[in-house]
Amino acid sequence: MPTDFPTTVDDRYFEDYLAGHVHQFGSVTVSEAEIVEFARRYDPQPFHVDPEAARQTQFGGLIASGWHTAGLMMRMVVDHYLSHVASLASPGLDELRWTQPVRPGDTLSVRATVLETRPSASKSDRGLVRTLFEVEAA
Amino acid sequence: MPTDFPTTVDDRYFEDYLAGHVHQFGSVTVSEAEIVEFARRYDPQPFHVDPEAARQTQFGGLIASGWHTAGLMMRMVVDHYLSHVASLASPGLDELRWTQPVRPGDTLSVRATVLETRPSASKSDRGLVRTLFEVEAA
């Protein structure tokens, strides 16, 4: 399966997303400082903000908030996958699973599988793209 | 339906979550500066980072990243709903929907409905609590 779009994000439209195609992109390394900074503000559970307390938990050390991982994923999706000229936003997700802890120093990338594309029934100038995003550690 | 737990987050256990109970809590007002700061890092789409460009979109102005709204929700959930002594973390969400845009100056709170509680089949010292979280604007 191809992993590259024929077009850049600045020249990408509904027709460029093809069901079954797989795209791999992005690379971000997350630091302990960023994990703690994000979690202090949005998810201050001990295993996200306190390396010492985290060692006593089932995780054995500091892990990123699942919402932080989602944010890191979204940044890669915005930079590499979404059209910068035609994307209208998303109504949500059908499922979100945190399967493995993300730890300081981990490098993440994204694997996007286009599941379905569907022209809008009510508006002829737009369509819906359903995508499976998987965050992978290098 | 009661909206308060009989116990504080520092003395709350699996048995204190009761299916059918509804809990309302939290209050956070989100500023334009915070919306832009979050989105610059994690979701730099025009309608999240650029008030001028956002006016030309279907939203008519700046709106928060859905991931930012999720983070604001999580902070209220950590502060008021999750046990600070017994919570073990979450495997994910069955569904996530962004139904209304969040705009600068909006004040948000959370309505949590306990959908189901289930003792673990394999580990007798723990259980699973399934919750519907709704973010409401004041």
Set down the secondary structure blueprint.
The structure is a homodimer of 138-residue chains.
Chain A: E1 22-29, H1 32-42, H2 46-49, H3 51-55, H4 66-80, E2 92-93, E3 96-97, E4 107-119, E5 127-137
Antiparallel strand pairs in A: 1-4, 4-5
Description:
The structure is a homodimer of 138-residue chains. Chain A is an alpha+beta fold and 138 residues long. Chain A has four helices and five strands; from the N terminus they run βααααββββ. The first copy, chain A, has helices at residues 32-42, 46-49, 51-55, 66-80; strands at residues 22-29, 92-93, 96-97, 107-119, 127-137. In chain A, strands 1-4-5 form a three-stranded antiparallel sheet. In chain A, a hairpin with a 7-residue loop joins strand 4 and strand 5 (127-137). The relative contact order of chain A is 0.23. The mean pLDDT of chain A is 95. Chain A binds chain B through residues 38, 41-45, 47, 58-59, 65-67, 70-72, 74-75, 78, 82, 87-99, and chain B through 38, 41-45, 47, 58-59, 65-67, 70-72, 74-75, 78, 82, 87-99. Strand 2 (92-93) of chain A pairs antiparallel with strand 3 of chain B, so a sheet runs across the interface.
* Major sheet of chain A: 3 strands, antiparallel
What topology, given as strand order, has the largest sheet of chain A? 1-4-5
Query: Could you name the ranges of chain A where pLDDT drops below 50 across 5 or more consecutive residues?
Result: none
Distance between the termini of chain A: 20 Å
Radius of gyration of chain A: 17 Å
Q: Largest interface, by Cβ-Cβ below 8 angstroms: which chains and how many residues each?
A: A-B, 32 and 32 residues
Number of extended strands of chain A: 5
The secondary-structure element order of chain A is EHHHHEEEE
Quaternary arrangement of the chains shown? homodimer
**What proportion of the residues of chain A is helical, as a percent range?**
25-40%
Mean pLDDT score of chain A, rounded? 95
Overall structural class of chain A, as computed from helix and strand content, comes to alpha+beta
- What best-fitting shape of chain A do the alpha-carbon axes yield? elongated
The DSSP helix count of chain A reads 4
Strand content of chain A: 25-35%
